[in-house]
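Hey L., structure's done. Input below.
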Amino acid sequence: MRYGRLLAIFLLIAGAAPALLSQNASRKVDPDEIIRKFSQKETEFYEAWRQYTYTQTASIRVRSVDGMPRRERLTIVSEIVFNDDGTREVRTLRSSGRLDSVQFTEEDKEVINNINPFALTENDLPLYNLKYEGKEMVDELDCYVFSVKPKNTRGGRMYFEGKIWVDDIDLQVVRTKGKPVPQTRDSKFPEFETIRQMIDDKYWFPVWTHADSVLEFSSGDIRVEETITYENYKKFGAEATIKYDTTSSPKE
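Output:
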């Protein structure tokens, strides 16, 4: 009696399976709707991120010049703080080491502070062309993948060009990979990858950026590696005392 009942249930499920698969297959991805929703989330994330303090450690290394090994390294530890008037400031706590083969410029600071933790907000969305590339897994997250390219690079500012990965459940960007543009013959930046993690059980904030590229300058090919970590996130205005550990340094 039990065997017959289980067999009937199995046959019923087996018969319904093709219809369910067909129904799921017929559900089409609407890239425009996904873009609209994740840009809203990006706007919320960016506005929240701008209200947090955190420490930022940037390690820039020159690995080789024209294939010859080098051991140049510059480490900059900064904290994001808020002044009495409410303005936000990236304040350098300490800087150690030096780079001889390349110059660390104001453009490099702009890339570290604003392009590496790239956010495609509703305000910036009209400046870019996006193309849906399909779905991929990032760690254990099923993600929509979009290529991102600026419509133009005029205006005296830096833009992002590359790909973003959007969690298909929360519709939040969890990974970005690309490069800053525009780049000139003697002003170049490596391709980077930035990973985000959930902070305060709500916002996907950047926690790690890494780049390792050979930059082709007019004077020669220089391999540059960069690692940036974002730590100690605290909501500005919280009653807790914020203490930063500035004694540690990245491992070789």
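The CA atoms of residues 212 and 225 lie 4 Å apart. The radius of gyration is 23 Å.

-- N.
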